[in-house]
Write a structure and sequence with these properties.
- By secondary structure, the chain is of the alpha+beta class.
- The protein has two domains: 1-32; 39-155, Beta Barrel (Lipocalin), CATH 2.40.128.
- The protein is built from two helices and eight strands; from the N terminus they run αββββββββα.
- An eight-stranded antiparallel β-barrel has the order 1-2-3-4-5-6-7-8.
- β4 and β5 (112-118) form a beta hairpin.
- It starts with a helix and ends with a helix.
Length: 194
């Protein structure tokens, strides 16, 4: 009986140690690549920078805004406009500062799924985004869930001339689409009961 108890304790200690080692290894690997994609990213072709930030009433979604463009004005010196937008009210807005990623939701895999707006054709496409490393972001955009393309964006910590740096909605900052603009935080249950 004494040998069985000793053997059982040895096996139990070994199982606990193995579980602890696996847990530390997994958290260490996950800790190197933060799931939150917030930050400023240079798009794959270098023509723009997109700021990703938390949005939505619970701040659990990701929205993205163009905060810098290599060529923000046309040949006549006028800012490029969102001329192809199906919403006529948005056709006169500047492309610099407009919202292009619409409230992507987190997934159990640590990614974010939602829609991305393409001002070049005025259409929205499904998108999944995730950090590939601490300084790289992957975006997989799909049309009809069949035709997909993946891009790699690089994180940027510097500022370029003409880059919007103010908070979203402030002068000199990007502008959220009305459905994402300054959504109020949900009221606590005690405040609603009054």
């Amino acid at each position: 009986m004494l040998k069985a108890n000793t053997l059982f304790r040895t096996l139990l200690h070994g199982a606990v140690a193995l579980a602890l080692i696996c847990s530390i290894a997994q958290s260490g690997a996950a800790g190197n690549i933060p799931a939150d994609p917030s930050g400023t990213w240079v798009v794959e072709d270098g023509r723009a920078r997109v700021r990703l930030e938390r949005c939505g009433s619970a701040q659990d979604r990701i929205c993205g805004y163009i905060v810098w463009m290599k060529n923000p004005v046309d040949a006549r010196g006028r800012p490029y406009r969102d001329a192809n937008n199906p919403d006529q009210d948005k056709r006169s807005r500047d492309l610099l500062g407009h919202q292009m990623i619409m409230g992507s939701k987190p997934t159990p895999e640590g990614r974010f799924e939602g829609e991305i707006y393409n001002a070049e054709d005025g259409k929205r496409y499904s998108v999944v985004l995730w950090r590939d490393s601490s300084a790289q972001l992957k975006l997989k955009g799909c049309m009809l869930k069949l035709l997909c393309s993946t891009q790699t964006w690089q994180q940027s910590n510097d500022l370029l001339p003409g880059q919007l740096v103010a908070s979203t909605g402030d002068p000199n900052g990007p502008r959220a689409d009305k459905e994402w603009a300054a959504l109020p935080l949900p009221k606590p249950a005690a405040a609603r009961a009054r």
